[in-house]
Amino acid sequence: MTLGAASLSACGSSDSGGDSGSGGSGGDETITMGFAQVGAESGWRTANTTSIQDTAEAEGIDLKFSDAQQKQENQIKAIRSYIQQKVDVIAFSPVVETGWDTVLQEAKRANIPVILTDRSVDSEDDSLYATFLGSDFVEEGEKAGQWLVDNASDMDVDGDGSVKVVQLEGTTGSAPAIDREEGFNSVIGSDDAIEVIASQTGDFTRDGGKKVMETFLSSEDGIDVVYAHNDDMGLGAIEAIKAEGLTPGEDIKIITVDAVKDGMTALANGEINFIVECNPLLGPQLMDLAKQVVAGEEVEKRVVTEETTFTQEQAKEALPDRQY
Ligand code: AHR
Q: What are the helix (H) ranges across 101-174?
């Protein structure tokens, strides 16, 4: 699906003759992008921020960057300030799915196109944004669930005939937390032996994952598997498991999502058992889309990033070349 060029033209770009860059804030050809980042909650997010900042610099895009510290109100403030500054294009990764329509309507009224990156919004009106670039989080959850189903006999660590899973959820209300749970559940439902016995948010942070895992270890009997919605929470869970005198990856199996360097290192060392990749290097595609959108060109409404999965053996091979 594509979006009509009319709704994509940027502030001040009507006399730019179709050149990339409207100079909405400065009157020259340089594109100004306002980017409202979620925060710095994980290794994934740090890699994502670096990719966006480095690519903007390399492409000569004037990037105004803000870190919302995982708070929706901060992202909304940042977006309003970008509207006031008359940037050419706004991009952001919504911390949660709902509650964006008002500020997106303000951007639309100001004729500033918006690109969603990494995470999407739950809105009935898809004319409020030009395109959404990011992963298929449901598919990521399905991949995690499929690996568990395929390896279920090895996952029943205590041999009691059931595979007891505890889930470390990402930020409550965020697209990756909602979708990774949904995808995982849809696949494990095919195996009656697999059961999620507890699930709680660790807010995508290492510290959150550690604290929630400590609670699970004291409240739940016979945990076989941890399914963590990102590497950082899985790495926090590893610390909690070790503190109990147990061996992560053996006494309790661990599945995570992201495949950042720290996660891949733990996978190669045998402390994690399987990782579903979520690619944070969105900078190049984002800047390309921004140029097209500002020039009034048609773009795909949904751009899905390509991703893979890693076993322990595959992590050993991939690790030396891992960029993030
Ligand atoms: O939205 C992507 C998710 O956000 C990553 O999986 C997680 O690490 C990050 O915090």
A: 101-109, 137-150, 152-155
Query: What are the Cα distances from residue 257, in Å, to 42, 52, 123, 204, 276?
Result: 12, 21, 26, 11, 5
Question: What single-letter amino acid sits at 59?
Answer: E
Q: pLDDT confidence of 29, banded at 50, 70, 90?
A: confident
pLDDT, position 12? 31
The per-residue pLDDT for 7 is 32
Pick from 38, 45, 136, 174 the residue to mutate for probing ligand 1's pocket: most ligand atoms within 8 Å of its CB: 45
Q: Which residues contact 252 (CB under 8 A, 6 or more apart)?
A: 157, 223, 224, 225, 226, 241, 246
Q: How far apart (Å, rounded) are the C-alpha atoms in residues 314 and 281?
A: 20
Q: Which atom of ligand 1 is nearest to the CA of 39?
A: 10
pLDDT for 28 equals 67
**321 Cα: distance to centroid of ligand 1 (angstroms):** 21
The predicted structure's pLDDT at residue 15: 30
Residue nearest to atom 3 of ligand 1 (CA): 176
